[in-house]
Backbone:
């Protein structure tokens, strides 16, 4: 077997210092009973770190939503949540309806930041590439416009992510496997959201499955191993000024770094800032 190179450190020289990224492992973005959700607490914290001004325009990107029902639920909860933050809201496209590339470009250029919803990561990236949304978002992000996302939206800025997209493509109760989905490549990282969960029907621990995929990828590219992160629900990686910060809303919500040591996957639980409403 080819010897695996250890990668304990992230090469921060590969991170554009203008990038502003908030990648949330999981958690609803909503307001219920006059209380803001865990996900919204993380977004509020990130926006403060990014010094985003009130009345800035957020562009909601719902491409990952795989059904009209999911889309409708997202619209209702997400709009209320972002309005609570004092931001103006725009929507890139409606469910299953994509404007012309010129119109997409105009919406992306007018936005001050972007919120990418959860859902089917493979569907999202496939559609983005078809309509050049991937290039438009990357250009905007590299100029300093913030990208915030949960689940599939957290995978979007990375080189690749460990995705449950196949669960959307089989009938309920049927078996499926996690897949690797390539993201925008803005950050030299591989991640999985929902690191602390199990998915039916097999109830395989997502952490274990991500480690297997990460090792497979490391073996296939032994001289170009990237750092991995498993992000628990209610936790987030926040990137600005070329540095990574870690935050969560619950004491048990952590971010776990993956790297190669002695030919195997090693993990490290990262210190994180605990946020309160």
Residues:
């Amino acid at each position: 077997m080819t010897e695996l190179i250890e990668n304990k450190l992230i090469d921060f020289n590969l991170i554009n210092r203008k990038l502003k990224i908030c990648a949330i492992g999981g958690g609803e973005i909503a307001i219920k009973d006059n209380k803001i959700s865990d996900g919204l607490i993380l977004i509020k914290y990130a926006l403060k770190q990014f010094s985003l001004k009130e009345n800035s325009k957020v562009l909601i990107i719902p491409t990952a939503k795989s059904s009209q029902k999911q889309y409708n639920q997202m619209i209702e909860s997400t709009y209320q949540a972002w309005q609570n933050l004092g931001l103006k809201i725009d929507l890139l496209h409606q469910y299953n309806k994509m404007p012309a590339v010129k119109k997409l470009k105009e919406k992306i250029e007018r936005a001050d930041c972007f919120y990418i919803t959860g859902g089917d990561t493979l569907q999202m990236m496939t559609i983005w590439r078809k309509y050049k949304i991937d290039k438009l978002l990357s250009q905007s992000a590299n100029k300093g416009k913030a990208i915030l996302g949960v689940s599939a939206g957290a995978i979007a800025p990375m080189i690749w992510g460990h995705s449950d997209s196949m669960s959307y493509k089989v009938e309920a109760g049927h078996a499926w496997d996690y897949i690797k989905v390539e993201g925008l490549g803005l950050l030299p990282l591989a991640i999985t959201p929902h690191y602390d969960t199990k998915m039916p029907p097999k109830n395989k621990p997502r952490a274990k499955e991500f480690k297997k995929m990460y090792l497979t990828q490391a073996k296939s590219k032994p001289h170009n191993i990237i750092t991995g992160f498993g992000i628990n629900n209610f936790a987030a990686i926040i990137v600005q000024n070329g540095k990574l910060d870690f935050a969560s809303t619950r004491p048990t919500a952590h971010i776990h770094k993956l790297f190669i040591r002695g030919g195997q996957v090693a993990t490290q639980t990262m210190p994180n800032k605990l946020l309160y409403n």
